[in-house]
Design brief:
The protein is mostly helical. It is built from twelve helices and two strands; from the N terminus they run E-H-H-H-H-H-H-H-H-H-H-E-H-H.
Length: 260
């Protein structure tokens, strides 16, 4: 028996409740980071470069999460999944810095900044941009690394390994399969199946609607979990004191997600 539907695909009602909780998570995260940065500017503007890098990644995660919510609220789920992929990479890179910083703050700062410069040097060469002073600085930094290390930095950046390997190192292979491999289809415009359905020119089997709901629900949950983990770390590291608030939001989110 084949059943068709000709109505536009919309979010499940409970998804709006999850979006509201993500909004609450975003609000407390933005407020905490803003207050902490204002405090640093007054009391300790010369924080270690490694901590500055970590706070920069925190801001990037917040910006991405806000973009994801805005797109999901507009029912632009495929576009949101492109940003979820980037949020996952931000999560992995944040934890790369965390691991480096746990051993040596100076080394963490040097590895990230050197890697950024060396990778930037390759891009500048490809794009025929940059000046002699910049390339001289990059040349000096390259003397600190082996030829193999330089190749890995130029390809992967400061972590010197692939996204998949970073996920394995951080015990997040399942996240990788969903948030990176799956959502890479959206990033590379290979999600034509979703858009054939969304154009709604021809009738589609109701199974497609169920698949969309499952995919969109997984996107909501993975984005929440990925961002929650990042902010929980920052609250603990920098004494933001919002762990209880985060736990309450997380508990409510999981309860609704389970009920779905």
């Amino acid at each position: 028996h084949t059943t068709h539907s000709n109505k536009p695909i919309e979010m499940r009602p409970d998804s709006h409740l999850l979006l509201n909780l993500n909004q609450a998570l975003l609000k407390i995260s933005k407020s905490s980071l803003k207050s902490y940065i204002a405090h640093l500017k007054q009391s300790n503007p010369n924080i270690h470069t490694a901590d500055n890098i970590l706070l920069a990644y925190c801001l990037k995660a917040i910006d991405l999460f806000e973009g994801i919510i805005l797109l999901q609220e507009s029912n632009l789920m495929e576009d949101a999944q492109i940003l979820i992929r980037s949020l996952f990479e931000t999560n992995l890179n944040t934890y790369c810095v965390i691991k480096l910083a746990s051993d040596d703050l100076d080394n963490a700062a040097h590895q990230v900044m050197n890697g950024t410069m060396i990778m930037g040097g390759k891009k500048a060469t490809q794009q025929n941009t940059g000046n002699d002073d910049f390339f001289d600085d990059v040349g000096v930094l390259k003397t600190l690394y082996s030829e193999q290390e330089i190749k890995e930095i130029e390809r992967f950046g400061f972590p010197q390994c692939s996204i998949r390997q970073r996920a394995i190192n951080d015990n997040k292979l399942e996240w990788y399969n969903v948030m990176y491999k799956n959502f890479s289809r959206n990033a590379h415009a290979l999600d034509i199946a979703e858009y054939l359905v969304k154009t709604n020119v021809r009738e589609y089997h109701e199974t497609y609607e169920e698949m969309h709901e499952l995919r969109d629900g997984a996107a909501l949950e993975h984005a929440h979990t990925c961002f929650y983990q990042i902010i929980l770390y920052y609250s603990r590291r920098y004494d933001w004191g919002i762990e209880d608030n985060l736990s309450d939001i997380r508990l409510q989110f999981n309860q609704i997600a389970r009920d779905q």
